[in-house]
Structure to design on (767 residues):
């Protein structure tokens, strides 16, 4: 058997020499000829091809050098605007209900059962409240954003975006298909990293993996939308508030694309040097999306899955927040100690100690950063005020804006830098694990994890310094 | 066989009749429960032809479907029951050819080549039939046991294109099903065609591209003889011979380390077998009770 096998390989290489080198092309040509014959005998064409012309016209517009990018930014802004404008009222109602009514009932129930303060505190003020924050701030925007995004995908628009970006990726020395994996990353970075398997060159695949984190994922869209609503929109006249908020989120998303290109260019000129390989990108036909089915499946498949994950992560994070806020060392809680320790660094970055602590607690999932920030701010303010002998009753249903600006001392710089830092920081633990599984390399996993944080720190440091020097913020 | 009572199936009508005779056998979607399947069905095809949509229609799963190339990069598995047999379905990544160049294409090719599914469904886009047939012709080089699912016929109709399924079936020598999978059209017919090929009741004469070149043909003949000596039960010696002549590194590796021998079936090679139902059933992998219907 073994001799037969080696004989076989030997004679194959001999025959290969005899029949000439372009066999692959000849075989392909033969198969194509065959396919043409078969297709001709089994296809009938007829009728006016008006839809084809519609497709062509639309493609010319959506992928044109002149209008391609403006249309892309416009679409993104419209989707985000619909999300922000639509989510305002349901978010407030959910907040009133979950953090107001239900929260009060739970405490009343705990009193009726005469539960010890630490138990009701841990369960209601910790675990429950974090979950309630996550649901009320994340469910409405996600329930609007995901179906809209999926409709664009179903219609066939996203590959056109990839097509527009292809030129830029090539110039950055990266694979054109990276435009596709980047679009996947806008849903979930872990999924985006897995999707880089469509890139055959290992060098270009690594570039795509490392830069995937610059696509705002499901978990971060919520943070972006919320922060922009609170801080950026507050500057604008109420009539334009949602539009301004949407524009700023779109701007951050585009900034993410710019960073993807810049870092790709940097990598392909330093650590991952090489030529860009060419490929052909197939533009799918425009398909009328099935609206109700899309809304249903994106609610079930994406919104609830992301929400479920957020709740799983929020419950332990809420417990941790409650514990470090209620265990005292000396005259302050652990949380206050850590926040004070981190405050100078936070100040330098235009952020604050609370945000940095929240990022440490939220490493498992980006979704829970904002809820964690809110709870930490409330708890820290409460204990600081209590220290000073002031005992104020909080309205737990207080609007997010009041909590952050009133108690947290946030400015527009804090909001802006939180959005930037949310764009530019380490991937979530799931993504890091996926990167490791896909690359099997400690080196590249480390690079992919740390590079975005370093960039984030540098960018935030710069904006904070500039803002303080020139705008007196 | 069907000890698993499924409320959505109407078993009474179908009593004990074999799937090839009884055409009303209902489709029961089994989701991810792939235990005890009688046959393995692979879904292959060019990117964005609707493989995942068909997968979802068959299994009742909700594998994410997107209107773009490259959505499925790993393979997904699910199951359904049709008539009295259980089928495991594997949704492969979209691929333009069987000459692996990237990880996702290699997953598709290796599965068809080494896992040897009982039926390979090649999903074709009716609007791009010619280019899609390119892949179908490469798959029929590897295996006879193919069903062509011509999908998106609703879209093609709007573009003024109609596909003659009988002409195509005659040309390709395998069953052809016209589908609009998004609306569920053709799913029943597809399950029937899969059942026919799996049970061996469809007379398969899969078409193989002709290579006019005499020199090439004699080279292939020499190699096929040697391949049959080295790996006596290999079902697709001609395809392997062509890959060898192309200097395909992964096939050469498979010959050197003997993995190529593992893909041989237990009994007679398909190439040498007449396409009568009984023989085909006999040589299909001896899983469970693959008994021919009498």
């Amino acid at each position: 058997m073994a001799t037969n096998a080696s004989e076989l390989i030997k004679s194959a290489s001999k025959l290969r020499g005899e029949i000439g080198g372009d066999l692959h092309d000849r075989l392909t040509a033969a198969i194509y000829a065959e396919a043409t014959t078969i297709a001709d005998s089994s296809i009938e064409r007829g009728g006016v091809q008006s839809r084809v012309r519609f497709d062509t016209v639309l493609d010319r517009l959506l992928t044109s050098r002149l209008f391609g990018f403006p249309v892309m930014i416009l679409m993104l802004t419209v989707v985000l605007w619909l999300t922000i404008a639509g989510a305002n009222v349901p978010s407030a109602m959910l907040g009133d209900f979950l953090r107001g009514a239900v929260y009060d009932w739970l405490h009343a129930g705990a009193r009726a059962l005469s539960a010890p303060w630490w138990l009701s505190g841990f369960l209601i003020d910790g675990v429950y409240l974090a979950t309630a924050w996550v649901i009320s701030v994340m469910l409405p925007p996600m329930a609007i954003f995901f179906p809209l995004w999926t409709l664009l995908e179903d219609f066939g628009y996203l590959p056109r975006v990839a097509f527009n970006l292809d030129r830029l990726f090539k110039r950055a020395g990266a694979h054109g298909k990276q435009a596709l994996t980047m679009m996947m990353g806008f849903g979930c970075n872990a999924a985006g990293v897995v999707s880089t398997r469509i890139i055959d060159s290992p060098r270009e695949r690594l570039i795509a993996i490392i830069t995937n984190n610059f696509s705002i994922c499901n978990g971060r869209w919520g943070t972006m939308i919320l922060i922009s609503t609170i801080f950026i929109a507050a500057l604008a006249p109420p009539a334009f508030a949602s539009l301004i908020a949407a524009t700023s989120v779109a701007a951050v998303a585009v900034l993410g694309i710019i960073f993807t290109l810049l870092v790709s260019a940097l990598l392909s000129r330093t650590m991952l040097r090489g030529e860009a390989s060419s490929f052909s990108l197939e533009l799918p036909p425009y398909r009328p999306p099935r609206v109700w089915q899309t809304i249903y499946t994106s609610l079930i498949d994406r919104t609830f899955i992301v929400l479920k994950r957020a709740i799983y992560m929020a419950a332990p994070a809420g417990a941790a927040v409650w514990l470090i806020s209620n265990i005292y060392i000396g005259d302050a809680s652990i949380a206050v100690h850590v926040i004070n320790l981190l405050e100078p660094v936070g100040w330098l970055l235009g952020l604050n100690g609370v945000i940095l602590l929240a990022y440490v607690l939220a490493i498992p999932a980006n979704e829970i950063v904002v809820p964690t920030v809110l709870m930490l701010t409330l708890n820290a303010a409460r204990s600081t005020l209590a220290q000073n002998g002031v005992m104020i009753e909080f309205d737990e249903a207080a609007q997010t804006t009041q909590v952050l600006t009133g108690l947290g001392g946030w400015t527009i710089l804090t909001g802006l830098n939180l959005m930037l830092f949310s764009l530019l920081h380490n991937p979530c633990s799931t993504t890091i694990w996926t990167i490791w599984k896909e690359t099997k390399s400690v080196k590249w996993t480390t690079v992919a994890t740390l590079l975005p944080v370093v960039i984030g720190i540098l960018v935030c440091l710069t904006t904070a310094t500039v803002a303080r020097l020139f705008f007196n913020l | 066989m069907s000890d698993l009572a499924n409320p959505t199936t109407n078993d009474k009508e179908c009593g004990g009749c074999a799937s090839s005779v009884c055409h009303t056998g209902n489709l029961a979607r089994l989701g991810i429960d792939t235990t005890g399947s009688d046959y393995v069905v692979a879904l292959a095809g060019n990117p964005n032809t609707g493989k995942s949509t068909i997968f979802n229609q068959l299994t009742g799963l909700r594998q994410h479907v997107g209107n773009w190339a490259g959505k499925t990069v790993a393979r997904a598995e699910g199951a359904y029951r049709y008539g009295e047999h259980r089928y495991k379905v594997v949704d492969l990544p979209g691929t333009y050819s069987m000459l692996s160049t990237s990880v996702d294409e290699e997953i598709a090719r290796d599965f068809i080549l080494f896992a040897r599914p009982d039926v390979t469904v090649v999903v074709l886009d009716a609007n791009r039939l010619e280019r899609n047939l390119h892949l179908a012709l490469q798959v029929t080089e590897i295996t006879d046991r193919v069903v062509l699912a011509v999908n998106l016929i609703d879209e093609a109709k709007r573009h003024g294109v109609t596909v003659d399924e009988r002409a195509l079936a005659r040309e390709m020598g395998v069953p052809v099903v016209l589908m609009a999978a998004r609306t569920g059209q053709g799913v029943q017919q597809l399950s029937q065609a899969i059942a026919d090929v799996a049970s061996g009741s469809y007379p398969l004469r899969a078409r193989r591209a002709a290579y006019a070149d005499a020199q090439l043909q004699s080279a292939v003949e020499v190699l096929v003889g040697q391949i049959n000596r080295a790996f006596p039960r290999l079902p697709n010696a001609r395809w392997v011979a062509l890959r060898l002549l192309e200097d395909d590194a992964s096939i050469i590796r498979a010959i050197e380390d003997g993995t190529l021998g593992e893909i041989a079936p237990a009994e007679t090679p398909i190439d040498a077998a007449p396409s009568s139902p009984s023989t085909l059933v006999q040589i299909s992998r001896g899983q469970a009770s693959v008994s021919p219907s009498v």
About this structure: Chain B has twelve helices and eight strands. Strands of chain B lie at 27-31, 39-45, 76-82, 85-91, 119-125, 146-151, 161-163, 176-178. The longest helix of chain B spans residues 214-230.
